[in-house]
Design brief:
two-stranded antiparallel sheet; 2 strands; elongated
Length: about 210
């Protein structure tokens, strides 16, 4: 056989083998990239691919009733945030007054002591309390009841006498309020109580309310 023909056959065979090898290698690599690992579950004996979808949040426009409820809650929450610090300070002073009144046996001494502490209350609260709205004033009275265990009528009656208490109660009536309003943390006032706890956590207030 001609040497040139033999050389041609050898070269052709070499390149053919080289091409075949490259094709196998490429096919093997493609197989690796085409393989995807997925989670699966077995259902009735069949293996079924599965995946966890992201949460989809659906929002609807609030109804008029819902808007009113949100506005009512926000108003209450704002009132508690504004008035609770005052109620807390008043509670500290009033609880301290009650604790010290037991030291005095004579009525004249009790009145003298109450009058001296009354000046302290006026100095602390007169200016800021005049800036409160009627609604905020109602919430403040509830919170004072919470902190002291007494409604505002009982407090005024104790410190200023029954006549003065009745006068203040009459004035409160004309403002659609009530000095005798109770505070029921586990019933009607549970929302206020929840907001108070929120304020305490936010500002690090310790609980000072008297146990009922």
């Amino acid at each position: 056989m001609d040497s040139r023909k033999t050389s041609f056959i050898i070269k052709t065979t070499f390149w053919a083998l080289l091409l075949l090898f490259n094709c196998k290698s490429t096919f093997s690599q493609n197989q690796q990239f085409d393989t995807l690992k997925v989670q699966a579950i077995i259902y009735n004996g069949d293996t079924i691919p599965m995946s966890v979808l992201e949460n989809i949040y659906v929002y609807a426009q609030l109804t008029e009733e819902q808007k009113k409820a949100v506005a009512k809650y926000n108003r209450l929450r704002n009132a508690v945030y504004v008035t609770y610090p005052y109620a807390r300070k008043a509670g500290i002073v009033l609880n301290d007054i009650n604790a010290n009144l037991v030291k005095y046996n004579k009525e004249s001494d009790r009145k003298r002591y109450i009058k001296s502490r009354e000046k302290e209350l006026k100095k602390e609260f007169t200016t800021p309390l005049t800036k409160l709205s009627v609604y905020q004033g109602k919430i403040l009275m509830k919170l004072i009841n919470r902190e002291t265990g007494n409604n505002c009528y009982e407090i005024i009656k104790e410190y200023r006498g029954g006549l003065t208490a009745r006068l203040y109660q009459t004035v409160a009536f004309f403002f659609d309020s009530n000095l005798k309003q109770p505070y029921e943390a586990e019933k009607d006032d549970w929302v206020i109580e929840k907001i108070v706890k929120e304020v305490q956590r936010l500002y690090g207030y310790e609980e000072i309310a008297k146990k009922r």
